[in-house]
Write a structure and sequence with these properties.
Largest sheet: 8 strands, mixed
Distance between the termini: 50 Å
Helix content: 25-40%
Strand content: 5-15%
CATH topology of the largest domain: Rossmann fold
Order of helices and strands: HHEHEHHEEHEHEEHEHHHHEHEHEHEE
Strand order of the largest sheet: 3-2-1-4-5-6-7-8
């Protein structure tokens, strides 16, 4: 890694001008995708006095921002209003790409029905923006993807328009590391990994991000940055897969896995406690391992260990439903016709994010077996629109009478806002997938 200054790297007038704009905080940043990643990043840049133009194809989000409203629970409307005072506004008009100096892509990278990478959101964003791009702009991809995406998917598209990374534009990959609901680490506090197509690209990318983020972590290439993000999430997937498998074994043996984990965690070295649950959720951990396994096949490598962890985690909602059936049978009830309340729709506690939530799959599986489904979640008042799941439901209030009318409650997400004493006092049967409730009485641990 060279120690030369950013200005030493800027070989062309266009990039010299870009560096000057960044250094004087006169650059305008365009954020593409105003969801759980893009909106916090936009607000952080605004907070340090940088003008931000947000792009989204969802007109509802665009209108909400421009009207000073928030659609993410943890972001107050007042924060958006304050950002507007710094020039933040949103648009669905991609012709305005020419107004920005840096383009930061924060769009989804889901899996298709064959559990293979779906880069359509990235491709569509770049191809829609490209006719309006110009020399002297920086393009940063933050969406999690397979190693090589920046060089193999984005760079050729820039070159087709005469935009050459390191000469008249800059291209970097810097993966998002948002952790919704984490009170200790916000956007500015989480170290930022970044890899550039050239030293010039890397230098410009660092100059931009360090305006808003405290610690930069440069790596040798976009591929290294892309692999870093995958390793972080695969590490969690594998360990969660391990503890979920241990939970199944412990359940068969009549052992409380949570007691075991707590005991093991007293070891001051060599052990990190991971908690079992009903499956994986969120925008990264259930998806990212498949991005690497898919790309690894191109190199003739079979990622058996990673795929096995994915299979275990993917199986957990089915295992939970099996436990519900067993528990109902023991109480003389078939699952068909039973009324079941799922507690918690978000993928983890104390947030409103339901992306890839195992609770949703559990609801779908229970309904397919004839159960009457409802849910309660203080953070998700109405069931959100999803590509693969459609429930016309609203969150149930947890009054004593309402709790008592259900044949079974399934604790899928252990929000702190639930009144667990009340739930225990009035529920007929509870299946606890999170270890929040003591096992015994009407409570069945899963």
């Amino acid at each position: 890694m060279s120690n030369a200054s950013p200005m030493d790297f800027c070989k062309t007038l266009a990039l010299t001008a870009l560096q000057e704009k960044i250094a004087t905080r006169q650059a305008t940043v365009g954020i593409f995708g105003l969801g759980y990643v893009g909106l916090p990043l936009a607000l952080r840049f605004s907070e340090v006095g940088i003008r931000v133009l947000g792009f989204d194809i969802d007109q509802v989000k665009v209108d909400a921002i421009n009207n000073g409203k928030s659609y993410i629970e943890r972001i107050a409307a007042s924060t958006i209003v304050q950002a507007q005072k710094q020039g933040f506004n949103a648009t669905s008009d991609f012709s305005r790409v020419s107004e920005v100096d840096a383009l930061v892509i924060c769009v989804p990278t889901p899996l298709d029905k064959h559990r293979e990478p779906d880069l359509s959101f990235i491709r569509n964003t770049v191809e829609t923006a490209l006719p309006h791009m110009r020399e002297g702009q920086l393009l940063s991809l933050e969406s999690t993807t397979w190693p090589g995406t920046t060089e193999e998917v984005l760079a050729p598209r820039l070159l087709s328009r005469g935009l050459i990374p390191g000469q008249n534009c800059a291209l970097v990959f810097s993966p998002e590391r948002e952790d919704p609901g984490n009170p200790h680490y916000g956007t500015k506090d989480i170290p930022k990994v970044i890899g550039g197509m050239t030293p010039t690209c890397l230098s410009l990318g660092i100059s931009l991000y360090e305006c808003a983020i405290q610690t930069m972590v440069p790596v040798s290439s976009p591929k290294a940055a892309e692999m870093t993000k995958l390793l972080e999430n695969i590490h969690r997937s594998v360990n969660i897969g391990l503890v979920n498998e241990m939970k199944i074994v412990a359940d068969k043996m009549g052992i409380n896995i949570h007691e075991v984990i707590n005991a093991a965690a007293t070891k001051p070295f060599g052990f990190v406690p991971y908690r079992p649950g009903p499956g994986l959720g969120g925008h990264c951990i259930p998806i990212d391992p498949y991005y690497l396994t898919w790309k690894a096949r191109e190199y003739g490598v079979n990622t058996k260990f990673i795929e096995l962890a994915g299979e275990i985690n993917h199986f957990m909602p089915q295992w939970v439903v099996g436990k519900v059936m067993d528990a109902l049978n023991e109480h003389g009830k078939p699952i068909k016709g039973s009324s079941i309340l799922v507690l918690g729709l978000a993928y983890k506690k104390n947030i409103d994010d339901t992306r890839e939530s195992p609770a949703v799959e559990i609801m779908d599986l229970l309904q397919s077996k004839g159960a009457k489904i409802a849910y309660s979640d203080p953070h998700v008042p109405s069931f959100p629109h999803k590509r693969d799941y459609h429930f016309d439901l609203h969150s149930e209030s947890l009054t004593p009478d309402n709790i008592a009318r259900f044949d079974c409650l399934v604790l899928a997400t252990d929000h702190d806002g639930f009144d667990y004493a009340q739930i225990r006092a009035h529920a007929r049967l509870i299946l606890d997938t999170r270890g929040r409730l003591a096992v015994g009485g009407t409570v069945v641990g899963a």
